[in-house]
């Protein structure tokens, strides 16, 4: 029988949140159409590194396996993306895997994306409709607008835009592009619009929209093709108008 | 509503870069261009600017304080970025990095330029006129220092105009942002020509 073809993975590992990162190389048996996750599953099955030493299986995060949940984001050959959608046949070998550096590492390739959820809370990226009684149907949304808003709603908080952003780092408190665009999405919704100024207030707080430096990497790397920089410019306009209203306008600048 | 101090300072930073600093820069470069028409023409134009009424107040409120604020916050902004051109070599990411690099270069240039001209004049050491610039720029090192300084300043202003348009929510669509990019390239080329042409006139008298 011919010798089994293998794929080399060089993985940046870290045993815990406070331990030092190190690299470990693995030779994984090749299978047709395999993705990075199936490579990681092979390592989990047989956790032996390229030197033939037994090691701990590499830990990673995943959920949907169809690029809609955002959990399996990692840096693959220098590019942040979802490992489920990264096909080995389309990658340069050796395949280098590393955790996204913007986020705290939990273990190996698992990162903690809590800051993204905090950012969504800051801009109130939801529509408060809970009531103790039936509030009746909400206002209708034009179909054309729905189709447009659907594109913004594809955001899965995967963190790729934060990873590529030069202004999201430990020296700045910038919340990143994802939440800025989500504020726009919910402000465009006919019911969400009723809480528009609260979301704009979130954008105007520290670490909000003023942290953007227009490097525009986010829109280039977004796996969902969300027009993040258009959202940011639109929210720049909206926050400026809100700021003027707050200062010069009436006492009811909702 | 809460006080949004960070937003206010960043917006003020953006505004001051264009009004008044950008307007002052354009005026300054255009007045310099009188050097091309001869020593007398330049001294007449510079003399008009240097004898404006309330000159010291104009200088403080239109030039010194805005530049000081823009520079202090600008250095902070430049130092809090995490430059990542290696992994993301996109055009706008380059502009992002160059905007911060030219900001620092421009600050060094302006400090030296103000020291050499305005401060020396205040100390009564020199007169600000054609022959002062001629003597400074006749040294090849200073000539090239000024060329780098002027181009860096003009780049920072031109690219800053693009950022201003986004920051104030004027250009939102990718198309409008792209066309503005072409527009600021023209601004960059025109102002660079005016600036460098004057330097050549001072240094070589042509």
TrEMBL record, chain A:
Needed co-factor(s): [2Fe-2S] cluster; [4Fe-4S] cluster; [3Fe-4S] cluster
EC number: 1.3.5.1
Residues of the 4Fe-4S ferredoxin-type domain: 146-174
InterPro entries: 2Fe-2S_ferredoxin-like_sf (IPR036010), 4Fe4S_Fe-S-bd (IPR017896), 4Fe4S_Fe_S_CS (IPR017900), Beta-grasp_dom_sf (IPR012675), Helical_ferredxn (IPR009051), SDH/FRD_Iron-Sulfur (IPR050573), Succ_DH/fum_Rdtase_Fe-S (IPR004489), Succ_DH/fum_Rdtase_N (IPR025192)
Alphabetic keyword roster: 2Fe-2S, 3Fe-4S, 4Fe-4S, Iron, Iron-sulfur, Metal-binding, Oxidoreductase, Tricarboxylic acid cycle
EC main group: oxidoreductase
Record's keyword annotation contains Cell membrane: no
Pfam families: Fer2_3, Fer4_8
Gene3D superfamilies: 3.10.20.30, Alpha-helical ferredoxin
Superkingdom, taxonomy of origin: Bacteria
Protein family per UniProt: Belongs to the succinate dehydrogenase/fumarate reductase iron-sulfur protein family.
NCBIfam families: dhsB, PRK08640.1
Entries under PANTHER family matching the protein: SUCCINATE DEHYDROGENASE [UBIQUINONE] IRON-SULFUR SUBUNIT, MITOCHONDRIAL, SUCCINATE DEHYDROGENASE IRON-SULFUR PROTEIN
The protein's name in its UniProt record: succinate dehydrogenase
Species lineage: Bacteria, Bacillati, Bacillota, Bacilli, Bacillales
């Amino acid at each position: 029988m011919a010798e089994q073809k293998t794929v080399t993975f060089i993985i940046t590992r870290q045993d815990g949140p406070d331990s030092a990162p190190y690299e470990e190389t693995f030779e994984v048996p090749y299978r047709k159409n395999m993705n990075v996750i199936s490579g990681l599953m092979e390592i989990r099955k047989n956790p032996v590194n390229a030197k033939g030493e037994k090691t701990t299986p590499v830990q990673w995060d995943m959920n949907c396996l169809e690029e809609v949940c955002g959990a399996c984001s990692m840096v693959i050959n220098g590019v942040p993306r979802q490992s489920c959608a990264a096909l080995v046949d389309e990658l340069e070998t050796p395949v280098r895997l590393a955790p996204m550096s913007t986020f705290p590492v939990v273990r190996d390739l698992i990162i903690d994306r809590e800051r993204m959820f905090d950012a969504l809370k800051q801009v109130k990226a939801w529509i408060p409709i809970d009531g103790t009684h039936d509030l009746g149907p909400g206002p209708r949304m034009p179909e054309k607008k729905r189709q447009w808003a659907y594109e913004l709603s594809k955001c899965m908080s995967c963190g790729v835009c934060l990873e590529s952003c030069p202004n999201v780092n430990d020296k700045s408190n910038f919340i990143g592009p994802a939440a800025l665009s989500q504020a726009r999405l919910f402000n465009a919704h006919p019911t969400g619009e009723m809480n528009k100024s609260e979301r704009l207030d979130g954008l105007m707080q520290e670490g909000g929209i003023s942290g953007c430096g227009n490097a525009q990497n986010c829109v280039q790397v977004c796996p969902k093709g969300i027009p993040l920089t258009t959202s940011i410019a639109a929210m720049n306009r909206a926050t400026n108008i809100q700021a003027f209203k707050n200062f010069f306008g009436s006492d009811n600048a909702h | 509503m809460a006080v949004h101090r960070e937003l206010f300072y960043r917006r003020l930073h953006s505004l001051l870069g264009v009004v008044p600093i950008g307007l002052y820069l354009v005026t300054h470069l255009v007045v310099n261009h009188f050097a091309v028409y001869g020593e007398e023409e330049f001294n007449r134009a510079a003399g008009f600017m240097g004898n404006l009424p309330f000159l010291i107040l104009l200088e403080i409120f239109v030039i010194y304080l805005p530049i000081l604020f823009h520079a202090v916050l600008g250095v902070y902004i430049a130092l809090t970025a995490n430059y990542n051109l290696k992994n993301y070599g996109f055009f706008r990411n380059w502009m992002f990095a160059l905007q911060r690099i030219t900001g620092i270069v421009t600050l060094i240039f302006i400090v030296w330029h103000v020291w050499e001209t305005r401060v020396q004049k205040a100390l009564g050491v020199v007169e600000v006129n054609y022959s002062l610039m001629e003597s400074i720029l006749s040294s090849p090192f200073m000539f090239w220092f000024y060329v780098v300084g002027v181009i860096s300043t003009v780049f920072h202003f031109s690219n800053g105009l693009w950022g201003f348009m986004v920051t104030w929510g004027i250009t939102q669509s990718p198309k409008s942002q792209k066309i503005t990019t072409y527009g600021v390239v023209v601004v960059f080329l025109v102002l660079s020509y005016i600036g460098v042409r004057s330097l050549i006139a001072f240094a070589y008298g042509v």
